[in-house]
């Protein structure tokens, strides 16, 4: 039996890389999407060492035409896409009143529109067969609406609303395509170092921080399960996790 195909955006590092490796171990062949070719190739080498077929595509998720083309290429070269996980994200930290419009725009383009464009690209091919799973990432309730994080909070809230409206449309049309949200706590990824910081102070997460492999396990559960939401640990719903500002 041919392996099923999973697509991971943001697959060069952090949650995306961990999800690609986890789904590869679970038996999927993997398509890797991201902006950094070197990191994508590193992930691809790790997968191929374990006998996983993979295809690395350098692609900015904020470009809708490129995302559609990537989906078509994956179907041509690997096979029918069964799972699509939108793991790419970007944000800026700082008081909303002093954030530059271009910072908010880029965070929205990658985190919200990048996930929307990935979802649309997946739907375009999955609806030919009437089945598949699309996975998007959200924040746990404890992380939603925190100060200094308006850009990400807004993008995640928009994505949450988008998915909530999409699900009944798919049910109405008779498609067996699940749109799943995985609610994440603070995750230890290189993104902490890459995030645009407009506070003038060093950022560090406060409270429990999980490794990317924990998020990848939740994404695997979402791929194989039947629920529309997955959360990591009861503690993530009860303990507020915030950014602390530390002296530079």
What's a concise summary of this model?
The protein has helices at residues 14-25, 37-48, 64-77, 101-126, 150-172, 191-194, 212-224, 235-238, and strands at 5-9, 29-34, 54-58, 81-86, 92-93, 131-139, 176-184, 196-197, 202-206, 229-231, 242-246. It has 248 residues and is α/β, with parallel strands linked by helices. Residues 235-248 have low confidence and may be disordered.
N-to-C series of helices and strands: EHEHEHEEHEHEHEEHEHE
Rg over CA atoms, rounded to whole Å, is: 17 Å
Detail the poorly predicted runs: 235-248
Which structural class is indicated by helix and strand composition?
alpha/beta
Largest sheet, strands/sense/barrel: 7 strands, parallel
Shape verdict = globular
Q: Please list the strands of the largest sheet in the order they lie side by side.
A: 3-2-1-4-6-7-10
Q: Please bin the fraction of helical residues.
A: 40-55%
Number of helices: 8
The first-to-last residue Cα distance is 55 Å
Number of separate strands: 11
Whole-number mean pLDDT: 89
Beta-strand residue fraction = 15-25%
């Amino acid at each position: 039996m041919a392996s099923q195909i999973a697509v991971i955006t943001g697959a060069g590092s952090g949650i995306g890389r961990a999800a690609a490796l986890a789904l590869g171990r679970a038996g999927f062949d993997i398509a890797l999407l991201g902006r950094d070719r070197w990191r994508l190739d590193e992930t691809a080498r790790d997968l191929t060492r374990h006998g996983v077929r993979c295809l690395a595509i350098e692609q900015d998720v904020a470009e809708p035409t490129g995302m559609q083309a990537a989906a078509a290429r994956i179907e041509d070269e690997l096979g029918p896409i069964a799972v699509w996980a939108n793991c790419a994200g970007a944000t800026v930290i700082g008081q909303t009143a002093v954030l530059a419009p271009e910072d908010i725009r880029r965070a929205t383009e990658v985190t919200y529109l990048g996930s929307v464009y990935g979802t649309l690209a997946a739907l375009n091919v999955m609806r030919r067969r009437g089945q598949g799973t699309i996975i998007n990432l959200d924040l746990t309730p404890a992380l939603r609406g925190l100060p200094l994080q308006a850009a990400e909070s807004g993008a995640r809230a928009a994505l949450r609303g988008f998915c909530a409206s999409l699900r009944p449309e798919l049910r109405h049309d008779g498609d067996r395509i699940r749109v799943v949200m995985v609610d994440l706590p603070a995750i230890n990824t290189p993104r902490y170092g890459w995030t645009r910081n407009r506070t003038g102070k060093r950022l560090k997460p406060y409270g429990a921080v999980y490794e990317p492999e924990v998020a990848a396990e939740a994404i695997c559960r979402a791929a194989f399960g039947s629920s529309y939401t997955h959360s990591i640990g009861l503690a993530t719903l009860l303990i507020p996790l915030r950014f602390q500002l530390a002296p530079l």
